[in-house]
Amino acid sequence: MADFTGRVAVVTGAGSGIGRATALRLAADGARVACLDVVADANDETAEMIAKEGGEAIARHTDVTDEASVRDAIAATVEAFGGIQILANVAGIGRFCHTTEMPLSDWNRIVAVNLTGVFLTSREALPHLLEGGGAIVNVASISGVKGHAYAAAYCASKGGVIALTRALAIEYAKRKVRVNAICPSGVLTPIIDSFTYPEGADEAAFARILAPNEGFCQPEEIAAAIAYLASDDAINITGTTLNIDGGVAA
Asked: Which residues are designated catalytic?
């Protein structure tokens, strides 16, 4: 386990799935955690779970697509804890859809949450990370590495997260801020229920993203990888994408 004693972590999407597992893991490793999520009740529950285990956490109802909401959440974190050393961008949404049938509103919403949200939280947190160094870990997807039918918006947004990760890594490498991305395949979280086959879909097309080991990831696996990339054990890792996919991209 990493030692994050004295460090402050911001976790988006902290109300469930990978985000909750990450908030709990970083707190267990000693970090004070700001839990950000658009679902207030679930987010509050995560912060309460941390407190019950003896950790320190605050919960902020945050829409990562809203500039003012993100700015307020980061300011509240700094006010509560004095700074930020770790940012875990986990919030994400998606669904399968025939591209010819996808409403522009759905495209815009998926890109806004998955990509613009990462930009906004990173932009607001970076001035604080730059004060003493730190790490940003973005949750992308194996769908940002390998094409997937019926997921144009999701693939584009997650591919954008990978490109943004590399851009930030280069921009801030000399200033002691590391930026990396995790690319999971299927993870057993509530979001997986959003990915139902569209009517008339070619099921053979889905074989491209089925893990050769026939397994799904657990949220705790992804949280452990985030903790590693945020830790001093990964001090020379930046601009990297770590695939946790059971061999999908092999």
From this structure: 154
